[in-house]
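User: Hi! I have a protein structure encoded as tokens and I'd like to know what sequence might fold into it. I'm fairly new to this, so please keep things simple.
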């Protein structure tokens, strides 16, 4: 990985905590789509007229790098992303800014509170059972089944954009399909 990153002149970064783990990342600059030879016009128009265009989504992720990466991905899909680092920030977006999320994406292991608890608080503040997705790096079967038993779909980090997109589509446009699959 280092050799390829050096060849492409993309810096590698490392963040590590004893007893918690390490995160390696490669920083890649955005290209200029207007000067690209590849036919990526679909990405440009998707932000304006894609299936998720204008959909308000509340993203709760305490890791700044992951929060920013997910925000950029969702915005490319035309989503109106409101990112929060924790429960207090998320609730402030609802109560003070007036955000009415149609979907919540929350990390499972937030520093101050579990993602499922944050989703419950957001639903209470929003006054409705807002569809939600939990993302987690903890692939322990007990954790995954606990999230699913709470009636919330789960994706394992690193999140696959196609899987996220399908899950979002189903939650927003075909919620009855997920109820049939639910345990």
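Assistant: Happy to help. Inverse folding works backwards from shape to sequence: for each of the 183 positions I chose a residue that suits the local structure. Here it is:
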């Amino acid at each position: 990985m280092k050799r390829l990153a050096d060849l492409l002149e993309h810096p590698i970064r490392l963040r590590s905590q004893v007893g918690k783990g390490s995160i390696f990342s490669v920083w890649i600059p955005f290209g200029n789509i207007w000067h690209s030879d590849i036919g990526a016009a679909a990405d440009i128009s998707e932000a304006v007229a894609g299936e998720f265009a204008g959909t308000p989504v509340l993203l709760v992720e305490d890791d700044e790098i992951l929060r920013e990466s997910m925000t950029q991905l969702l915005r490319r899909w035309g989503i109106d992303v409101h990112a929060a680092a924790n429960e207090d920030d998320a609730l402030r977006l609802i109560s003070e800014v007036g955000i009415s999320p149609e979907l919540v994406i929350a990390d499972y292991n937030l520093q101050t509170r579990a993602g499922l608890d944050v989703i419950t608080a957001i639903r209470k503040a929003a006054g409705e059972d807002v569809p939600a997705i939990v993302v987690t790096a903890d692939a322990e079967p007990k954790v995954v089944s606990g999230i699913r038993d709470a009636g919330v779909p789960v994706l394992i980090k690193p999140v696959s954009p196609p899987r996220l997109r399908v899950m979002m589509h189903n939650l927003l446009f075909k919620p009855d399909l997920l109820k049939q699959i639910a345990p």
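A useful reference point when you look it over: Strands lie at 12-17, 21-26, 56-60, 80-84, 103-107, 132-136, 154-156. Feel free to ask if any position seems puzzling.
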